Amino acid sequence: MNSIRQVPSRMKTRMSETTLAAERDHFEKQQLSSISKAINSSETPLKEKHARRIILGTHRQKGAYTFWSYAMGLPLPSSSILSWKFCHVVHKVLRDGHRNSLQDCMRHYSDVAETGLLWNNIRDRHGYAQLVSSYSKLLCNKMEFHTKHSEIPCSLEVTDELLERTAGTDINNVFQLTVEIFDYMDTELRLAEAVLRQLNMSIAISTLTSGQCKLAPLIQVIQDCSHLYHYTVKLLFKLHACLPADTLQGHRERFHDQFHSLKTFLNKARDMMYFKRLIQIPRLPDSPPNFLRASALAEHVKPMVVIPDNEEPEEQEEDDPEPLIDVSEAAPIMNSQPMADIFDQAFGPPNNGFDDRELQIERLKREIELLQAELEKIKGEAQRYITQLKSQINSLEAELEEQRMQKQRALVENEQLRIELESYHHRSVEHESLQATFTEAEKRAQATDMRYNKLKEKHAELVANHAELLRKSADTVKMLSATQQTQEEVERTKLQLAFEIERVRQEADMKMEEQKFDMDKLRRELEEKSSEIHRVKASLQTTEKTGEMMNSSMAALQAEKERLMRSVSEKDAELSSLKQAAQLKESSLLQERDRSIRELGELQGKLKEKSSREEQLQQKLLEEQFSLLQATVTEAENIIQDAVAKLDDPLHIRCASSPDYLISRAEATLSSVDKVQADHTEFVKNMKDAGGLVRALTKFSHLAADTITNGGATANMAPTDQADRLTEHCKGCATQSLHFLRDLKSKSSLKGADPTSIRAAVQKILRIGQDLRPKGMDVGKDELGDMVEKEMAATSAAIEEAVRRIDEMMNQARKDTTGVKLEVNERILFSCTDLMKAIRLLVIASTDLQKEIVESGRGGATVKDFYARNSRWTEGLISASKAVGWGATQMVDSADKVVLHTGKYEELIVCSHEIAASTAQLVAASKVKAEPSSKRLGVLQQASRHVNEMAANVVASTRTGLEQIEDKDTMNFSGMSLIKLRKEEMESQVKVLELESMLGNERLRLGELRKKHYEIAGVPLEQMAQDNGLQTSSYATPSSPKPSKPTLMKKPALAQKPNILSKSMVTIVYQTLR
């Protein structure tokens, strides 16, 4: 029986544990869902319902450890928007969460700081990186401040009395607290300025989700700044009451900067539509408070931030309603249930059916409790707002009353001080007369002395009263600083009075000295002074009257006190009336909120209808634009296909076109391809306007078809090899164009369409067209004369430079080398110097002969006309002049390398041969137009032979030096066996075969280089063979000459080898030019 009775209690315990575990799992699941929905990477503002659930979770668990356990698993480094929302949620948890949340957040202080440092040096496209950095600095500063000052909550909602207790009486602590609040305010304002700086104020940015995402945290910033501004004003007035104004100059300047920044921020935020429905932003005064005037504290009004209760409507979601937070002591859950219900829940209903009424009842109870909690929260906020208003009214009334009382006291004190000053003057005069009377008559002086003592006692009493009034004034100054300016005037009056008293005392002492000398005279005038004694008595009576007047003034002050008490009672009555008005205002505000919610629902419905209509119109516009694009693409395909058909049309074979026209068409096509690509990119970004892409495709199709058609016409006139390649590239261009156009016709492949392949095909056509252009056709014949003079001048300059460099090398060699090496270097450099001098004489003789040829052959034409008429001869002369200058430069470089032991002696020999060939070419080119009997021609030939002799001397000097330097070791055959000799012989034969093979390969390479040289020089091998009666080999006959820009168009650098003909080709060139 006992065991049966104990079943319900055991089942009750088991059900309680099961229910608590289920509630805990439900709570953790709900917290995880709220955190994941509140902190995500979508650029939308944080929803209040998710933040509210997170905050309620901190109150339920009395801490934020559950929030941090889930939040630290978020991928904060992956998204700046995710980090931004994380900082926003942490800010709300600090402000509105449980008071223990600050300690949990401080444990993750380093994580918040590292998040800010991570995004500090990163630039993202949304602009959140720098905002996250500023926000993390704000959160770190906030946690440090409230950890240090634990009396001030993170919501910053404290009374003025608590602020006074936190600051303390030590002025150094007040000073330090003010600096910390300044730093706190700076971090808040920096975040606000960073957010507003990134917003485009020219549009309604606050109505967009991207703008609202950035603006949402500024609500907490506005709440913090309103409290920080009020605390700063209070603390600065307290500092100015205790410290000199000069010491606080920096504080005032910093406050003024923050005041203007805060006012600008609040004005901008007040104009934004986003904040108008979420927060009532206070207005700051036009100018900052004047801390130098103590009464300005009464003019200060604490800015009040009001958060309306228009919470966003709850959406239909899949998650369960959040359970009620148990803020009271844990009461037994199942006590009220009957015993039968416990057995039904444990073992099921008697009929083994499923009864869900209990679940529905529990769900309804939870919903009722949630609604009650929300209602209590609303009532609490309203009561807190009313309390704040009441406290503000009370403080303002108390300050007003204090100022009135202080004003009355100051007036009374001023009047008393004035009366005392006058009485003191009278007493000073009386004191002098009493002293004189005392010296004249001892008896009467005794009476006078007694009266004087009484007067002194009265004076001391007045002084004591004056000191008491001063102490009261000092206490009044400490309580309220509104009468500071009046007190300063009183102090100045005191100083003046003290100075006047001191002056009177000094005058009295002087009088006493004078009166000692006049003692005899005063005795004789004793009778006369008796009348003055009567006046003293009258003055004493006046002093007594003054005491009576002071008593009457005290009675007046008592009456004023009673009047003030009556005024206090009247103010209490007014306060009760204000309370009733506040309650009426609260009810009206609730009604206004309900009406606003209804209007908001209606406006949202209209907005959704308008948005759907706009989406339909946008979709229709997109379809029309795409159909227009498809029609344009179809027409472009027809144009290009028609151009491709002409390539295989027999009637088109007779058509011909020049390479120049083909090049112009190809270049225009390339420009149109770039335009198509740019307009395609713009169309992909904004598909509402296809006009630019349609125009670009129309132009591209015509230009591409024109290029293809002219490419086929040019191929009809070109050699077979190049014609086939040109036709193939034209067809390839058409194929790539049609493929690109097909991609544009489909929405799926529209974004991936790329005209790069078309550009490559057109560039191939352009290169073939440039190859088909004849050589030298882009060279102006009128420029040949100038080029001849420039090349001859350049050759002379190169030779002068070579002579100078050889002299420098000679001097350097004498410093660095000795012995055989110095002898070899001097011999080589002397021979090179002689060769350069001979070349200089050759150039001078060639220039003179050239002038003679031009003067004798031009007739009545100009020099430029003569050169243009004999262009081939001019080109040969220019080529020969370049060869001579280049050979001189190469000779100097090779000699420099030999002297420095970094080159080979064979290079000097080759350069000598090149110079001999170049001079032979220059003589041959000059001899073509010269008269056989010309004396200057003989001089030129003599100079040419001298150059050849000097070149031979260079070769001989080089070889001799090489033989002197080489260390020729004689072979030692002693001790070598037959087998070893045989082996050495075989290795030598292998080396000989290798060298012969290398020699053959190098000769073949030399032949190919000379062949390419002749082609670049512009002398076709067929023409040279025909001029000399030779048969051209098959490999030397190209299908078509490869066009290239002639050497006349660009002067090569001195270190670049020009187009030099060998000695064997000089005769051929001479006959050709002849």
TrEMBL record:
One of its GO terms (cellular component) is cytoplasmic vesicle membrane. It comes from the Eukaryota. Gene3D superfamilies: 1.20.5.1700, 1.25.40.90, 6.10.250.920, I/LWEQ domain. Residues 776-1017 form the I/LWEQ domain. Belongs to the SLA2 family. Component of clathrin-coated pits and vesicles, that may link the endocytic machinery to the actin cytoskeleton. Binds 3-phosphoinositides (via ENTH domain). May act through the ENTH domain to promote cell survival by stabilizing receptor tyrosine kinases following ligand-induced endocytosis. This is Huntingtin-interacting protein 1-related protein. It comes from Triplophysa rosa.
